[in-house]
Amino acid sequence: MDVLNTIVNAGIYALMGLGVIAALGAVTCRNLFHAGLCLAVVLIVVAGTYLSVGAEFLAMIQVLIYVGAVLTLIIYAVMLTARLSGGEASASNGQAGPVFAACALFLAFMAPRLMKTPWPVSPSALSATLSVNGLGQSLMTTYVFPFEVLGILLFAVLIGAIVVARKDKA
Amino acid sequence: MESIFVNLKGAILGVLGKFMPEWTMPIHSIMISITAIAVLGPAIMMYLTLMERKVVGRMQNRIGPNRVGKWGLLQPLADGVKMLTKEDIVPKGADPVLHLLAPILIVAPALLLFAVLPFGKGMIAVDLNVGILYFLAVSSTTTIAIFMASWGSRNKYSILGGMRAVAQMISYEVPMVLSVVPVLLVVGSLSTRQIVEAQASGWFVLTPWGFFGAVFFFLCTVAECNRSPFDLPEAESEIVAGFHTEYSGMKFALFYMAEFMNCFSGAALTTTLYFGGWQGPGFLPSWIWFFLKTYSFIFVMMWFRGTLPRLRVDQLMGLAWKFLLPLTLVNILAAGLWYYLGGILKFFIPLVLMAGSFTILTWLNKPYVPEKREYQFAD
Amino acid sequence: MFYGYGILQGMWVTLKQFFASYFKKRGQDGALFTVEYPEQRLPEKERFRNFPFLIYDKEPENLRCVACDICAKECPPKCIYIVREFDKDGKPLKRPAIFDIDFTVCMNCGICEEACPFEAIYMDHEFEIASAERNDDLLYHKDDLLKSNAYFHKIRPNDATAVDAKLKEAEDKKKAAEAAAKAKAEAAAKAPPPPPPAAPGTTPPPQPPKPAV
User: Fold this and answer.
1) What is the pLDDT of residues B323-373, one digit of tens each?
2) Do chain C and chain B touch with ≥3 beta carbon pairs under 8 Å?
3) Is B346 at the interface with chain A, CB within 8 A?
4) Which of B59, B359, B362 sits opposite C17 (nearest CB)?
5) What is the CATH number of domain A1-89?
6) N or C: which end of chain A has fewer CB within 10 A?
7) Per the domain annotation, does B294 fall within a domain?
8) Exposed, middle or buried: residue B211 (CB in 10 Å: 0-12, 13-18, 19+)?
């Protein structure tokens, strides 16, 4: 079984490596459409990460909402605002050096602290709340007020979108 | 006969277990299921193309293909050879990465969907406990591939078709998801196997919310597969072939394959959710019942194709947003009422609620008929 | 009735057509109208015209064509080539030695049929004459074009009977004219010579009684 675990872990690390490469591609691609697709890969890798820790519901919702809807919206925006010859992003604005240095500093600061923090995980708590039943129960009992407020917020967003998108009857 | 496939898999695993190390057994188990699906998927699709041509032909009072092999049974092989040997044309201004990836990314979800379909008792490739959500999530990734296909072709008709296709698919996802919710309410689980097993006492289609829910879900499935009457994205008489205009040869075959595999999965999911899945009287094995029900839904899809004209794009979107969406929301309410009421009211109140909202929405969605023009000087 | 009723009516029609296509015979409502060529063929209509053919009455040697060259002159693309036959002494005969029609040129207009005064050339129904070669196979000579009157009756019965009636009428009229001329010649031969002219002053001799006509 250890061999199987090793294979599975190797696979998970490979998937995350793919995610990092895709994230690099998403920020460096000249062609906007390709950048959008690299973003899709990153989002799917995030869903895979959720799966690897056992949060199946979250993984499926991630794919359904992020890849199925948000990315579609982003690509619609790219398609509708770019010319037919392919939207091109500018190569660089000359700030790559300082940004790289800042990111390296940030990583040097955060990485040891991230490794040393104990992240408490109790398997039973994980499976109880991350399961669909647990989620539903907590949404309807413990967190019902934020749930309803979010519903009203989304409703307002929807009405705002319709109002903004209407043609003026002028 | 009933559990022939389960026994076959057990036998193969037993044979493999003798000389393979222990840790490879889960891998072998899943590989056997994957191989079965990878063989079954394209085979189903091939014979679905033949079934479509013959069924639509008979509805139009003509014989379908019958030259290649008796009753045309080898016609899919001839089609396959034709598609393989056709030249693969990539337009000069097309984006090669997108043009190549799009057919692959549209076939992959179509095949992935087969993993959660319960083909028979104990015959399900992966028994996820979020099976339905997996199905909905994976079928929503098809839209990206259609975008890629239309944008990568660099052809204004492709882009038009692609935009329409994506608009149609994301619009019909909403009523589709909402029409699945009553089933989840009543069953209490997202796993397809448990949904089928919960229908042992009565199929969901025989309940008031289930009847309407099945109709809505089936309509949304037909729209998701871009089939008539919702086949505006590939309307052959309007925008050449829509988003797959610039594809030829094997890539077009992959698009075609993805469409038919989506049809099969959609029909299979309709039987799973509402029509009892593999359940049926005992004189036939469970997987034969599953295939019979699924193929009768596929026949209904082909029946639609042979009968109905295509919907216009505004009629299509109006149907999804103004008609199906409110109805599916009321359906959830009706299902909840059915679940909690008892006695004689259990059937009538949901039925009255659904029928009433159907009538009201029909009245509210009356098509726009312009007023009759008066010609003053015409005789 | 309710919202989807029209759709259901339409679907019922198609379903009936679907099942009827298995049971009904050709001609009934819902039957298949596919003709599985080449095992089954539809009979051609009589008025169908394809390429021309030459008619002979009893044997191929007695063809009706007299090599008058009218069809060759009237043919719009000039696909007919006729050479008259001469006998041993060099006298022209009323039959063609060479009668070629180039089917790659012939446009199936039927003018040769309308122009022929001897009812010798008519349009055929034969269309399965595809050839693998480009030119030579489709140049039809006299032997290829000759077909019997019985064949003509088979493919175009109405036209054939009308033509036969016309020919028979012409034949009868000719025979009647011949008979009348012959009878007149006979009668003239049998009648006595006319009497000599009378001298002036004398009464003419009594005439023999004229035979009753």
Assistant:
1) 999 999 999 999 999 988 877 788 888 888 999 999 998 888 887 778 888
2) yes
3) no
4) B59
5) 1.20.120.1200
6) C
7) yes
8) middle
ipTM of the complex: 0.84
Number of domains comprising chain B: 1
pLDDT at C153: 92
Residue A159 tokens read as: 């009405």
SS3 C86: strand
**What range defines the domain where residue B270 resides?**
24-364
CA dihedral C144→C148→C152→C153, nearest 10 degrees, is -160
Residue B7 lies in a domain: no
- Structural tokens at position A110: 């955060």
Q: Which of B61, B66, B358 sits opposite C17 (nearest CB)?
A: B61
Taking the model in full, what pTM does it have? Answer: 0.85
C187 in reach of chain B (CB within 8 A) = no
Residue carrying the six token digits 């041509």: B53
Which of A39, A58, A63 is the best mutation test for B, with the most CBs of B within 10 A?
A63
CA distance B160 to C198: 118
Residue B377 lies in a domain: no
**Chain B residues with beta carbon closer than 8 angstroms to that of C7:** 307-308
Name the residue type at position C9.
Q
Cβ contact B62–C15 (<8 Å)? no
What tokens does B304 get?
């639609």
Under a CB-based contact definition with an 8 Å cutoff, are residues B335 and B348 in contact? no
Contact A132 B27 (CB under 8 A): no
Cβ B151–A132 below 8 Å, yes or no? no
